[in-house]
Predict the structure.
Amino acid sequence: MADEGEPQQTTNTVEEPLDLIRLSLDERIYVKMRNDRELRGRLHAYDQHLNMILGAVEETVTTVEIDEETYEELYKSTKRNIPMLFVRGDGVVLVAPPLRVG
Amino acid sequence: MDQSDGLAYDQAEAANSMRERTIVENSLVVLLQGLHGQVTTVDLRDESTARGRVVNVDAYMNVRLADVLFRDRRGRVSRLEDLFITGRNVRYVHIPDNLDITDTIEKQLGKISRMRNYAGDRGSKKKKTNK
């Protein structure tokens, strides 16, 4: 987070949950959002509302279709890539290091 | 009574009230304010998208766009001259690839602090011009 003119206190200790996010600055992270969305990208900036700026982002939207006859659940996901994205914090559910698949 | 401002700034730029200024200085909305005049895409909460030139963003993330291509959630496209989006309805704002984030934030914070100084001098007899 950039600050100008005021002395900035950046401690290296983890004091509150938001500090854990600070540790992920400039790293790739996984963000779970509301409405079955997930983001994977590089965390450039964040604030106390969890508004975030992510670079090289891949957004995954997951939908469930139900087969009317067999009642089978078919999970579909749509992905798209965005070079730089500002995310409004109220949509964020959780922030984590990227999940390793397999 | 001289109503004109000595400071040349976009009337849409820095926030007007103390409260708004404080909110902006302490959150990432300051970056969105740095996008004034640029063309970006705003993804709304209801899956519709609006692509247009950023006229103003306030402390609550309310966005005003001009010359907008609006795609509703069904995919129907319409052209709008002026669009106001409530902050709550914003999901994403696409940031132009070539934007330097730190630089934009620092410049925007600089503008806001200069506004603060100017506003503080309003009561005095001499009209100072800040950069």
About this structure: The longest helix of chain A spans residues 17-22.
